[in-house]
Write a structure and sequence with these properties.
Helix content: 25-40%
Number of helices: 3
Radius of gyration: 15 Å
Strand content: 35-45%
Length: 152
Amino acid sequence: MSEHELVVERLMDAPAGALWRAYTDHLNEWFCPKPWRAEVVEMDLRAGGRSSITMYGPDGEVMPNDGVYLEVVPERRLVFTDAFTVGWEPAGPFFVGSFEFEPQGDKTLFRGRARHWTEEARNQHAEMGFEQGWGVMAEQWEEVARRIAAGA
């Protein structure tokens, strides 16, 4: 683990394929803790492709999250960053994130990582509620993936 990294890890009761489908087709259902909601603006799942998700809070907050995918391995790994926007335009970097899926029979070991450039940025993300927020996100994601795996 990097010294500026935050990690959430869960053994999810869903296969990696269902988690992948939940990401690609149902992200708006689980991406942020309720009562917040997420809207996918663009999801170009390839290295260099645009990742744009806007989060909306219950009191009118609007938080755009624009960046690019650095690595995309279907059903195994997504790496993304806000250090660049589409066309490799530099942006004010906060972190490089990754979602990793390790099949464990009909379950999946999930790791969500956020690697920061500085200790200050890492601490800021931790104080913003990284562990709780990404933990709730993972629980909601698992719920959607379980539904997909069950064919519902």
